[in-house]
């Protein structure tokens, strides 16, 4: 039976990172290639870390490993000073209130036969919160994401895509978590709705001791929300640092390719980026003389 293993840390609890990923490697199947290869990073309390890369870069696999949804081949995942790499199902349930997630498609995780208030109250019920308190906290969570009173009685089909993502954020925040894993949380939304959801996530973080792991493929989205960024390519870290510095002076060729591929509203700038992206992709695939 798995137990929560303590990790020796500094006496100053405030100096302990909210999350540490140490030399993480993940392989699908016994003989398959590594989907994640020796990845390390930290997230501080109240910090947002952007995890960025193209499809197949391993970013979603890392998020799922942190949530306990895929097994780890080697390395360690440490949450608030505790090793959570290989917890039993019972031990993992003790983390459900502190470690939450927002996924790309909220509709698939909402029961169409039940009002959304049921989805928000479920984690509180598991945590043993009394019924009266559950009702209050569900209403408060929906209010915090800008949904009108009475929304808890409506069904998923009665909300727009952007509103359903707000429901998903409310469900993640209803337990007052310490860390939320946002896996492509805005990539399925139009640009206007993306901006609204990103502003909401930023506002909810302000003044709270809440951290985000923000997984995305769009550098512009990560630039808006994250203080630091980790760039992944084929399961390995190719660059990491403060977001402004990485955006201003990218060191890795792959980072420059991602930046050039990010859409922008200015058509002239978008055309320039498209041309730069094509040149960078061509230089990356050119044979070495």
TrEMBL record:
State the CDD domains in the record.
Answer: ABC_NikE_OppD_transporters
Which residues are in the ABC transporter domain? 19-259
- GO MF terms on file? ATP binding; ATP hydrolysis activity
In its keyword annotation, does this UniProt entry include Translocase? no
An example GO BP is:
transmembrane transport
* Assigned protein family: Belongs to the ABC transporter superfamily.
Name of protein? ABC transporter ATP-binding protein
- Organism expressing this protein natively: Agromyces tardus
Upper classification of the organism = Bacteria, Bacillati, Actinomycetota, Actinomycetes, Micrococcales
């Amino acid at each position: 039976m798995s137990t929560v293993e303590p990790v020796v840390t500094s006496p100053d609890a405030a100096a302990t990172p909210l999350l540490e990923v140490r030399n993480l490697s993940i392989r699908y199947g016994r003989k398959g290639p590594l989907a994640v290869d020796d990845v390390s990073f930290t997230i501080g309390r109240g910090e947002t870390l952007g995890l960025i890369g193209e499809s197949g870069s391993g970013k979603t696999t890392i998020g799922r490993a942190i949530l306990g949804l895929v097994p780890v081949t080697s390395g360690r995942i440490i949450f608030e000073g505790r090793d959570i790499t290989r917890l039993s199902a019972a031990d993992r349930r003790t983390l459900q209130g502190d470690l939450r997630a927002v996924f790309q498609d909220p509709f698939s995780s909402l029961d169409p036969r039940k009002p959304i208030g049921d989805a928000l109250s479920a984690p509180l019920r598991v945590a043993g919160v009394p019924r009266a308190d559950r009702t209050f906290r569900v209403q408060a969570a929906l209010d915090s994401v800008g949904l009108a009173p009475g929304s808890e009685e409506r069904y998923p089909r009665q909300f727009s895509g952007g509103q359903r993502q707000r429901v998903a954020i409310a469900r993640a925040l209803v337990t007052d978590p310490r860390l939320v894993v946002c896996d492509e949380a805005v990539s399925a939304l139009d640009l206007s709705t993306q901006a609204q959801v990103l502003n909401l996530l930023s506002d909810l973080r302000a003044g709270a001791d809440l951290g985000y792991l923000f997984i995305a493929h769009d550098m512009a989205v990560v630039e808006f929300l994250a203080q630091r960024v980790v760039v992944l390519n084929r399961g390995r870290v190719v660059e990491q640092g403060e977001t402004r510095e990485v955006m201003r002076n990218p060191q890795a060729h792959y980072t420059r390719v991602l930046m050039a591929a990010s859409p922008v509203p200015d058509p002239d700038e978008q055309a320039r980026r498209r041309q730069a992206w094509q040149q960078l992709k061509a230089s990356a695939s050119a044979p070495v003389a």
